[in-house]
Design goal:
The complex is a heterodimer of chains A (339) and B (501).
Chain A lengths: L1 H31 L6 H26 L7 H15 L20 H23 L5 H21 L13 H8 L1 E3 L4 E3 H19 L1 H11 L1 H6 L4 H27 L10 H11 L11 H20 L4 H21 L6
Antiparallel strand pairs in A: 1-2
Chain B lengths: L7 E12 L2 E12 L3 E5 L6 H8 L7 E6 L2 E2 L5 H6 L2 E4 L11 H6 L5 E2 L2 E2 L1 H15 L14 H14 L4 E5 L7 H16 L3 E5 L3 H7 L2 E6 L2 E7 L5 H9 L17 E10 L8 E6 L3 E5 L6 H9 L4 E8 L2 E3 L4 H6 L2 E4 L3 H5 L6 H6 L7 E2 L2 E2 L1 H14 L16 H13 L5 E5 L7 H16 L3 E5 L3 H7 L2 E6 L2 E7 L5 H8 L4
Parallel strand pairs in B: 3-10, 3-11, 6-9, 9-10, 15-22, 15-23, 18-21, 21-22
Antiparallel strand pairs in B: 1-2, 1-4, 4-5, 7-8, 11-12, 13-14, 13-16, 16-17, 19-20, 23-24
The chains are: A mainly alpha (339), B alpha/beta (501).
Chain lengths: 339, 501
């Protein structure tokens, strides 16, 4: 009996390790610094997690395919530059488009940001499904292309390369505003993240596209034999990711209120880490939307609490690295086949 | 019950199929009546799988006619076949292990409501098929958590969900317990009474005589006979399966077994399915053949000896010394070498050249002051090419550009460079044409004559009888008996191979 008891306990731990880690982290921080536990800290963490969370929701699909996306951050940079440049204050003298004298409707830059992201995602989808390249390689190429494009775009301003700043106050308001609930502030960013997550939950769980995505990631041959159109499915999932990248870019530009050539740098790695911590397995075919969200939030909790505890920034990197390794090491235990 | 005189729902006549160097099917035929179970029997490599692959359009037959329910049929693949009412449950189940039972069944045609996949409809349809067939599985379970027999039943349910009129079961009972077999038979009987025609591929004679109405026997890609199961006996089936002339020629045996080299006692693997309680001895200069059906765990036995599969019990002694091979590095150090069954997957490094492929198992012996000695690697590769008679333009040729036989010679040469005493050969002549086979036989006999001990797993009985000294027959993971090759018969091997299945 003792054996089965400990086996059960072990299985429970494997399945819920994420929540255990998150819980331990929060308790550790609270013990050290009781003031950490406040609604406003919570809403700050959520707001910071939102753009990367939306990015991660897109990247997660590619990891389910046993792939990855190294280009997500630079694609976000490009799309953010497009939407920021179109939404600079019309009173700002050195704006990128001096011909825009009336403020544009907000929807226009949002849609353009989405289109730009979708175009880059198409390159990745084409490389993977038609050219049969590994996702790592094709997205590495796309990353460089997107970075080059971003630099060219920023450099094309008549005053040379300078940050795209002085954004339209409406834009900043729609991104950084919040509802006042009395006991706490609920940032709009969190609401956007929730809407995107709900949308992706439906895609993953309630549509053929989502179901087929899991089938292809889990066993591509079985999926093909069952009549799944693999190429079409890959394009669908990448285009949906493009929509998410576009939304994330639009929000990120408004959040940081300045877009430079460094915007989006390493966001892809944060998104991938979030997915992996959240149990989206690199072995393919496994992952959930709540998992992705929790993964991204864990990363942000780590970031914020290390900052809150005043830990040396260099140690922060080391601690984050260790947490990623531990989380994934526990995760792969679930799938090791014994011989 | 549907009348047994009903017409044929599947007719395959005069099917031919050739692969380079091999005639896999030669005027093969099979005719299946509605509402019957039709057993398809034959040795490993008799052409049963190839015939089924032609039916499902995985292979395109070179000649012959296939008609399903009276109409000519030429399916472009398994999916088309399923939609045409022909389904197959493979021995190796091809499922998306991380997803639920019902998603596996409805993959590629999920039921929808308002444009969204409806789990409710999916669940209800799955549950009703399961209820019909008496399958007690929760449709929401992750399929990887089910037992093999449950997964197999899910596949059968999938076939039923496609409204299959013809169902092929490939070795459905090979990994089931007796109770599970009984349950499977209940399901088969239910399908039969619903008018489904079932092609049942199996090696288990008693089972076949119990469940099937008719039996078709194949040998060497040809149709040998179709008889009512009630007219057959186990002996008669065996005779029809193996009754061929020994047309292959084998080189004269020049090896003489000498002193005892290896002693294996009650060897048992750890993770099922695996070998159990295997005991034997091997002498220097001896070739010990290992016969058995697919799934008799011969490969697992070699892997357990070689240390790449875990063992739970048993002792291995080499020349009296107790040996523990914890991994392949230990095994190589202790003088073992293993030629794997899947040459492409685990034998050759196809994108690399012959030099690399020759020296890789012995690589640390070329290290001098931390760097590899190119000169000695060249000489040793040259030795491999010369002594194995590898036909290759140069040492720098990619091994994938060689024929199967020449690739196999390089891999054998690779292991000889480690100077082993015990060679474990798993299907050393698989996928090799007849001429190259003879060269491999000669090589094996020469190695034995030099005093090495050889354990050779093979599914070709003539080859085992032709070059072994003794033949161990495995069945269900155990040794069913060890025969002297000089007076072993194929009938006797067949009987032992079916002993514990």
């Amino acid at each position: 009996m003792a054996d089965t008891e400990s086996a059960k306990w072990k299985e429970w731990f494997l399945n819920y390790s994420l929540y255990v880690i998150l819980g331990v982290l929060i308790i550790a921080v609270v013990v050290k610094e009781p003031s950490f536990l406040s609604f406003n800290n919570f809403s700050k963490i959520m707001a910071q997690a939102s753009t990367r969370g939306i990015l991660a929701l897109g990247v997660a699909g590619m990891i389910v395919y046993t792939g990855t996306d190294l280009s997500a951050g630079r694609i976000l940079g490009c799309a953010a530059a497009v939407s920021a440049s179109l939404l600079q204050s019309v009173t700002y003298a050195s704006r990128m488009y001096p011909n825009i004298t009336e403020p544009l409707p907000m929807i226009v830059p949002l849609i353009l940001a989405i289109i730009v992201s979708m175009m880059f995602c198409c390159i990745n989808a084409f490389g993977i499904s038609i050219l049969k390249m590994h996702a790592f390689i094709i997205s590495l190429g796309t990353q460089l292309i997107a970075y080059g494009t971003l630099c060219l775009y920023i450099d094309s301003q008549k005053n040379g390369a300078q940050p795209l700043a002085s954004l339209d106050p409406r834009y900043i308001g729609i991104v950084n505003g919040h509802f006042d609930l009395g006991f706490m502030q609920l940032p709009y960013l969190v609401i956007y993240l929730v809407i995107c997550s709900a949308f992706m939950w439906v895609i993953w769980n309630k549509t053929t596209t989502g179901k087929n995505m899991f089938a292809i990631g889990g066993n591509a041959e079985a999926a093909a034999v069952s009549g799944v159109n693999v190429t079409k499915n890959i394009f669908c999932v990448y285009l949906i990711a493009g929509v998410l990248y576009g939304i994330a870019a639009f929000l990120e530009a408004g959040r940081v209120q300045s877009v430079t050539t460094a915007t989006g740098l390493n966001y892809d790695l944060d998104a991938i880490s979030g997915c992996v911590i959240g149990g989206v397995s690199f072995t393919g075919g496994v992952g959930t939307i709540p998992g992705v969200l929790i993964g991204v939030i864990i990363l942000q909790v780590i970031n914020y609490s290390l900052y809150y505890l005043n830990v040396n920034a260099y140690y922060q990197y080391i601690i984050k690295g260790l947490i990623i390794i531990v989380a994934v090491a526990i995760d792969v235990r679930k799938y090791i086949a014994k011989k | 019950m549907v009348s047994k005189t009903a017409g044929y729902i599947l007719e395959m006549n005069g099917i031919d199929k050739s692969f380079p160097g091999v005639k896999a099917l030669d005027q093969a035929s099979l005719r299946l009546k509605a509402g019957t179970v039709h057993a398809l029997m034959g040795e490993n490599g008799a052409g049963k799988s190839t015939l089924m692959k032609c039916l499902f359009g995985i292979y395109r037959a070179d000649g012959g006619e296939i008609s399903v329910m009276g109409k000519p049929a030429r399916f472009g693949g398994p999916r088309e076949a399923m939609e045409g009412g022909v389904s197959m449950v493979h021995q190796e189940l091809n499922q998306v292990l991380k997803r639920s039972v019902m998603e596996n069944i409805w993959l590629g045609r999920f039921p929808k409501r308002f444009g969204f996949v409806s789990h409710k409809i999916m669940y209800e349809r799955t549950a009703s098929i399961f209820a019909d067939l008496g399958i007690n599985v929760n449709p929401r379970m992750i399929i990887g958590r089910l037992s093999v027999s449950q997964r197999q039943m899910v596949e059968i349910a999938k076939a039923v969900s496609y409204n299959a009129k013809i169902l092929v079961l490939d070795e459905p009972t090979s990994s089931l317990t007796n109770d599970e077999v009984e349950h499977l038979f209940t399901i088969i009987n239910k399908l039969r009474s619903n008018g489904v025609g079932i092609i049942y591929i199996s090696h288990r004679m008693e089972e076949i005589l119990k469940i099937s109405d008719e039996v078709t026997i194949m040998r060497d890609g040809r149709w040998i006979g179709t008889e009512a199961a009630s007219d057959l006996t186990v002996d008669k089936i065996i005779k029809m399966m193996v009754g061929r002339d020994l047309t292959q020629r084998f080189p004269p045996k020049t090896n003489k077994p000498g002193a005892e080299l290896l002693e294996v006692e009650s060897l048992t693997g750890l993770y099922m399915p695996t070998c159990r309680d295997v005991t034997f001895t091997l002498r220097r200069g001896e070739i010990l053949g290992v016969a058995g059906l697919v799934g008799s765990r011969r490969t697992e036995l070699l892997e357990t000896i070689f240390g790449i599969a875990h063992r739970s019990g048993g002792v291995i002694r080499k020349e009296g010394r107790h040996i523990v091979n914890k991994n392949s590095a230990d095994a190589i150090k202790n003088g073992f070498a293993m030629l794997t069954e899947e040459r492409r997957a685990t034998g050759i490094f196809s994108m690399l050249d012959i030099t690399f492929n020759s020296v890789i198992a012995n690589i640390k012996n070329y290290a001098a002051h931390g760097l590899l000695a190119g000169g000695r690697m060249y000489t040793d590769t040259k030795w491999v090419i010369d002594s194995m008679k590898v036909k290759t333009p140069s040492q720098k040729t990619h091994i994938r550009d060689l024929s199967g036989g020449n690739q196999q010679k390089v891999v054998i040469g690779r292991w000889l460079l480690t100077n082993p005493d015990v060679l474990l050969l798993d299907e050393p002549t698989r996928g090799i044409d007849v001429g190259a086979k003879a060269e491999i036989y000669q090589l094996i006999i020469n190695l034995a004559a030099e005093g090495k001990g050889i354990i050779m797993v093979s599914s070709e009985m003539p080859e085992l009888i032709g070059i072994s000294d003794r033949i161990a027959v495995m069945s269900g993971g155990r040794f069913a008996g060890i025969l002297d090759a000089s007076d072993a018969t194929q009938e006797e091997i067949m009987r032992l191979a079916a002993l514990y299945v």
